[in-house]
C-alpha cells in the first residue's frame, strides 16, 4: 500500500468523508513537500504527526462553520416577515408591552 493511500485511510478511519479525506491527504502531501521531503520518503512518525495536525485543523474549521451557517431547511418553520401575528400572539405582545416603561416601549 502506498504512503498516500495510508494517509487517505487514516482520515477515513477518523470519520472523514471520502471527499474530505482526499483533500486532507493532499494537504499532508503538500506540507511534506514544503518541508523538503517526498511523502514516500518521510518517516512514519512525521507523516502521522502531520495527519493529526491537519485533522485537528479540519475539525476546528468544521466546528466554527457549524456555528456560523444554518441550513435553510431549519428555517422553514419560521413565519415569513410579511405575515401578521395571530390573535394569541398579538395579545401576548400587548401584555408584554404594558409591563415596559414608556421609554422602553418607544425603543421597541
Write the topology of this structure.
Elements: H1 3-13, H2 18-34, H3 44-68, H4 87-99, H5 102-107
Helix pairs in contact: 1-2, 2-3
Structure description:
This protein is mostly helical and 108 residues long. Helix content is 67%, strand content 0%. Helix 1 packs across helix 2 (18-34) and helix 2 crosses helix 3 (44-68). The longest helix is centred in the middle third of the chain and has 25 residues, at 44-68. The termini are far apart.
Q: What value does the average pLDDT take?
A: 84
Number of strands: 0
Largest sheet: none
Distance between the termini: 66 Å
- The number of helical elements comes to 5
Shape descriptor: rod-shaped
Class by alpha and beta content? mainly alpha
Provide the helix percentage: 55-70%
What is the strand content? under 5%
Contiguous low-pLDDT stretches (5 residues minimum) are none
What Rg do the Cα atoms give? 26 Å
Output the helix-strand order: HHHHH
Concise synopsis of the structure shown:
It contains 5 helices and no strands. By secondary structure, it is mostly helical.
Annotation keywords:
108 residues, mainly alpha, rod-shaped
Amino acid at each position: 500500500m502506498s504512503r498516500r493511500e495510508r494517509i487517505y485511510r487514516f482520515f477515513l478511519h477518523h470519520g472523514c468523508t471520502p471527499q474530505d479525506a482526499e483533500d486532507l491527504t493532499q494537504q499532508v502531501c503538500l506540507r511534506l513537500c514544503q518541508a523538503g521531503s517526498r511523502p514516500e520518503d518521510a518517516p512514519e512518525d512525521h507523516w502521522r504527526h502531520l495527519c493529526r495536525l491537519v485533522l485537528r485543523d479540519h475539525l476546528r474549521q468544521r466546528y466554527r462553520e457549524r456555528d456560523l451557517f444554518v441550513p435553510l431547511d431549519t428555517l422553514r418553520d419560521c413565519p415569513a416577515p410579511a405575515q401578521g401575528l395571530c390573535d394569541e400572539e398579538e395579545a401576548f405582545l400587548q401584555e408584554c408591552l404594558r409591563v415596559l416603561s414608556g421609554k422602553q416601549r418607544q425603543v421597541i
